[in-house]
Amino acid sequence: MPHGIFITFEGVDGSGKSTHIRKLVEHLRERRSPVVVTREPGGTKVGEHIRNLLLRPGMGKMSSLTELILMYAAREQHLEEVVRPALARGRVIISDRYNDASFAYQGYGRMLGARTVRALDRAICGRTQPDLTLLLDLDPRVALERTRRRTNRGGAKLTRFENHGLKFQQRVRAGYLAMARQEPRRIKVIATDRPAAEVQADIRKLVDGLLAKRLRFGSTAAQARPAIKKRRS
Ligand SMILES: Nc1ncnc2c1ncn2[C@@H]1O[C@H](COP(=O)(O)OP(=O)(O)OP(=O)(O)O)[C@@H](O)[C@H]1O
Ligand SMILES: [Mg+2]
User: Fold this and answer.
1) What CATH number does residue 126 fall under?
2) pTM of the predicted model as reported, rounded to 2 decimal places
């Protein structure tokens, strides 16, 4: 049975996830890799409704545990509808955030603790864990500044999480880095306080390395095929 490759992007708000996913996907599509791009919370119709509840500013008070459970409700839907079917078809699936975000935001940021998150994670994600996680690491102060600039240019408005302030974002960052120390083989820390082209080159090296390894050892359909040369018109 073919088994795809599951790659997740993590990092504080404004660390560069969406930017680098876009560039990586361009690269993979040029190589004719069967890529599926998705995001959390969301990625499904039900999930996008839950995302709205979670991210909209002015939602009113929400307990941290409610927040965590809603995240996992959206995640369950995402796994059922998108992630597991794509993996079964041998796709390379790239998700803008996944379960590490719950450990970082609700576990560390909201201080619910890793045990509570892990209990839900075992029940819902089970063995569907990422093959590779790219942790885009940036000082939250710089990240917030970049996000503000993006907002001023007419981009998306600040979300409930971004409005939570620096202390919260710093706990989230520390949480992510602690997880990377615990799982250094899966979670790769990429500093994004550098020119985007440099950051992207590091990301491509890691992803290409993983795809090449699968090509050598696996019978997956998620293999990079050499790009077909474009005909000049
Ligand atoms: N290496 C970089 N140098 C300077 N600016 C960057 C770099 N990478 C991304 N940016 C800019 O930083 C801003 C935030 O990036 P992006 O939207 O990709 O972050 P994100 O992690 O997806 O944020 P969010 O969590 O809010 O979705 C964007 O305006 C983007 O153009
Ligand atoms: Mg983004």
Assistant:
1) 3.40.50.300
2) 0.91
- In a 13 Å sphere around the CA of 191, the CA atoms on its Cβ side amount to 4
C-alpha to C-alpha distance for 67 and 4, rounded to whole angstroms: 30
Parent domain of 177: 5-217
Cα 194 to middle of ligand 2, angstroms: 18
196 CA: nearest ligand 1 atom: 1
Give the orientation angle of helix 45-55 with respect to helix 64-78, to 10 degrees: 160
Asked, for residue 73, whether it belongs to a domain, the answer is yes
pLDDT tens digit string along 95-153?
999 999 999 999 999 999 999 999 999 999 999 999 999 999 999 999 999 988 877 77
State the closest ligand 1 atom to the C-alpha of 9, by its place in the atom list counted from 1: 21
Query: In a mutational test of the pocket of ligand 1, which residue from 8, 10, 18, 199 has the highest number of ligand atoms less than 8 Å from its CB?
Result: 18
Q: How far is the CA of 129 from the centre of ligand 2 (A)?
A: 21
